Amino acid sequence: MKIADLARVRDEDLDGDVAGQASGAGARALMESIMETAREPVPNRSGRRRVMLRRGLAFGPVAAALAAALVVWTPFGGPATQYANAAVSLKTADDGGTGGDVIEVEINDPGADAGKFTEAFRAIGLDVEVRQAPVAPEDVGKLIGPELIEGSYPKGAGITISTREEGCRSAWCGKVSIPVGVTGRILVGIGRPAAPGELYATPVQIDVDPGGGVIKKYDPRNKPVARVRADLEAAGMKVGYVVMWDNPDGTAGGYAVDPANVKDEWLVQHVERIASDAVTVFVAAPAGLPKDSLPMIQHPSPDWWQN
């Protein structure tokens, strides 16, 4: 079935069978232009994982709010199909000659019931589920993900993120693209306040903490592990570690290790808050430590998306 064959629908049409019902004006106009400024891979959510990092890039959340656009690359064609409810507006449109039409999604109300978002995607034939995701206070109301939780991508493809800052009046603006040929179920989160001690769906990087997180104006970078650990534990934080090795191409990779295998004199790269009472300290592997030579352990992983 092609998107062009689907009817425009409204909230009141959803009491019955969505497909094939006519509607009135449809969704309101979405963002007129999207300027792409970066592409970032969606993070792996498995607990036991390797971390890849390129120098100079922040290790922040993949999130979107009021003016975000979720773009699904699909071979639609034909006239645009629109859908809108109180939570979200959907519209198919040409993405400027990139080889296919897209679905643009504007979030009208991040605090709306997650079922309204799921309802919207399914109304236009997409197997997308939206759930409430626990996040840090600064990420409440943002869109988290998306994540492919069942199925597979075409070979060499995956979900990508592009961001824009110009004209953005929300916490984050941009697009998420899902390649043609993806199969299975896609999960999207809408940020809600995490309970005390609950793992965040996306970590929050601490470079110079302004005081809303752990320690006011605290900068952990290039400090020895022993000092950073003492400071964070004094602030009531549980501390875990990821050791990172530099690669010749300027990237770095690493994984979670047991605290007993982290030496006091090693230097800290940065710190991420993973819960209100827990942090992960990223440590630079010292010269002479063979790559991937330390035993890997299970990294704390949120499970909001698994249930």
Q: Describe it for me?
A:
This protein is mainly beta. The protein has two domains: 3-30 and 61-193, no CATH class; 204-284, no CATH class. It is 7% helix and 34% strand. It is built from two helices and 17 strands. The longest helix has 10 residues, at 114-123. The model is unreliable at 1-47, 53-69, 72-80 and 97-101 (pLDDT under 50). The chain crosses the membrane at residues 56-76. Keywords: Membrane, Transmembrane, Transmembrane helix.
CA-to-CA gap between the ends? 30 Å
- Major sheet attributes: 6 strands, mixed
The coarse overall form would be globular
Strand order of the largest sheet: 2-15-14-17-16-13
Structural class: mainly beta
pLDDT averaged over residues: 71
| Count of alpha/pi helices | 2
Question: Low-confidence stretches at least 5 residues in length (pLDDT < 50)?
Answer: 1-47, 53-69, 72-80, 97-101
Content of β-strand: 25-35%
Q: Please compute the radius of gyration using only Cα atoms.
A: 21 Å
SSE topology string = EEEEEEEHEEEEEEHEEEE
Helicity range of the residues?
under 10%
Q: How many domains, as an integer?
A: 2
Number of strands: 17
Keywords: Membrane, Transmembrane, Transmembrane helix
